[in-house]
Amino acid sequence: MILRLAIGSLGARALTVGMTVLAIALSVVLFLGVEKVRTGAKASFADTISGTDLIVGARSGSVQLLLYSVFRIGNATNNITWQSYEAIAAQPQVDWIVPISLGDSHRQFRVMGTSDAFFDRYKYRGGRSLAMADGARMADLFDAVIGADVAATLGYRLGDPIVVAHGIASFTEHKDQPFRISGILEKTGTPVDRTVIVSMEAIEAIHVDWRNGAQVPGQATPVETIRQMDLTPKAVTAALVGVSSPLQTFALQRAINEFPQEPLLAVLPGVALQELWAIVGVAETALLAVSAMVVVTALIGMMATIFSSLNERRREMAILRAMGARPRTIVGLLVLEAALTAAVGAMLGLGLLYGVLSLTQPIVDSAFGLWLPIEPPSLREVLVLVGVVAAGAIVSLVPALRAYRLSLADGMMVRT
Amino acid sequence: MLRLHEVRFRWAGRSGFSVSVPDLQVMPGETVLLLGESGSGKSTLLSLICGTVLADSGRVEVYGQDIAALSGGAHDRFRAERIGMIFQQFNLLPFGSVLDNILLPIRFAPERRARAGDARAEAVELCHALGLPAGITSAKAATLSVGQQQRVAVARALIGRPPIVIADEPTSALDAGTQTAFLDLLFAQVRGHGTTLLMVSHDPRLADRFDRVLHMQDIAQIARQAA
């Protein structure tokens, strides 16, 4: 019956209670949304590379190497010479090695030169391999395989010609050597989706007429001549390495880091990822703290609403007191009302979150490559919701204690 | 049934308003009208009897029980068990149904609940006896007329047959015709159950219905000290 009275009393103040519920719901959406994006980003980062033991690049920072080689974020400061690459490939501990050559782009997407082995060796999300949605790997020098997002965004189909631009944001295009799309990859949820993959030789071929980052004026080698040329790469940006035995990973890493001919850096993807989290962690915590503050603000708003309703409810409390309700029953009633309000707000927030997720999931995926899974609330999320309800009940103790004192002082003789 | 002896009470912080009652007794089954102007200490007296405020000195006995001897929670329980309360107006929780309102006091009074037996049936019966339309029990209290609300308040005061009903100007919000009908119904119920009735009013015209009429100025001294 107390529950019925609490619900009835809330219903009688539907408008203000509704506003409070909405404020709590939105704050819960924000908090859980940030949490979702955070865990989603972390999971999709962690899922991006698996099965690779070492990433090798020119000496810079381990996070930077990881970011540009795997996530296509930022740029390499330097390349590895082909001689060094071959020397590493010849090391006895190396099981396989895949070269990566970056630096060109097509529209907003990066172009990556690599070898055929990339399709076999690159693994994501716990060991899954790349699969062709359509077409086949590069067979010709000017064949390109595109990621799912490239195909979807630009509307490309098999056989379509594409022109690669020099640099990342450049107007200089390699017009003389157009590519043909030979294959489209299935969606992976990794940066591969937003990559145009060509062969190492193709990267060499489109730069035949280029010296020191600029096109040689007046020089335009015909495509047929290029095909006859020796297109062995002169340099690679990075390399993915698999070792024959995990025990040799550190030995190989040390050997590469102490490579005498050239300053190189080898990193373990997992370790570099941990370093990245350590950097991002601060911002992550700040974001979480801000959204937690929004929840607190909404709850304080609820407390203010309860406070302002106390005066108009003195009559109601006096009636309850006259009927024999103890002051602590009145406290219980107010706390129960607050807990109900917070619970409805939390549930509405959860509902809104799923609504927003199902609407924005494809948009976020295509815009940021971030896959936010829609799944039942995790234990952590359930705890957050329970926490909101509990916090609601706790903050309502402040006005409830005031009501307690008021009802003790008023007794049952308030006249309104 | 009800006895106040050498009672003194002073409101804390309220401009030194104090009441003292040398002696007041009400017998079981008696109907007593307590007449007094506003500000004559009527409400304070009722608060003392109900135990929502405690006397600074003297003795307040209800149903043989010294109110001051009860602990805080026991006051509320005692009030719920022994006293039916009717206010001037705004008696009901507006968002509750008529039935919710009538059953409210027995929620806090197990003995009264036991005495009521089938509480819902008794509530319906009381509504019928008080001339309320059938089926009104499920209506929201806020939708009732003032006269109907006061009758629901009577039903609430009477449910589970508490020995004392205290009414604080229950007719002041009613027009003359409704007032008479209301008092007829109230007295029929109170007399029928042998309930003690203590009614506070400023209206001397009600006097002839009661066994005894008391004037505030005769039983109590009021003092106001300048703050």
Automatic annotation (TrEMBL), chain A:
Descriptive protein name = ABC transporter permease
Q: What is its main location?
A: membrane
> Source species, please?
Roseobacter sinensis
Q: Name one Pfam family in it.
A: MacB_PCD
Q: Where is the signal peptide?
A: none
Keyword entries, A-Z: Cell membrane, Membrane, Transmembrane, Transmembrane helix
Provide the MacB-like periplasmic core domain boundaries. 19-207
Xref: InterPro entries: ABC-4/HrtB_transporter, ABC3_permease_C, MacB_PCD
Quote the subcellular location field of this record.
Cell membrane
Question: Mind telling me which residue stretches traverse the membrane in this protein?
Answer: 12-34, 263-280, 286-310, 331-357, 382-404
Bilayer disposition of the protein: Multi-pass membrane protein
Q: Which residues form the ABC3 transporter permease C-terminal domain?
A: 289-407
Automatic annotation (TrEMBL), chain B:
Q: Where is the ABC transporter domain?
A: 2-227
Respond yes or no to whether keyword Cytoplasm is given for this record. Answer: no
Keywords of this entry: ATP-binding, Nucleotide-binding, Transport
Name the SMART domains for this protein.
AAA
Please name the InterPro entries in this protein's record.
AAA+_ATPase, ABC_transporter-like_ATP-bd, ABC_transporter-like_CS, ABC_transpr_LolD-like, MacB-like_ATP-bd, P-loop_NTPase, Sigma_54_int_dom_ATP-bd_1
Q: Which domain of life is it from?
A: Bacteria
**Any GO MF annotation of the entry:** ATP binding
Q: Does Transport appear among the keywords?
A: yes
Q: Which residues cross the membrane?
A: none
Q: What is this protein called?
A: ABC transporter ATP-binding protein
Species of origin reads Roseobacter sinensis
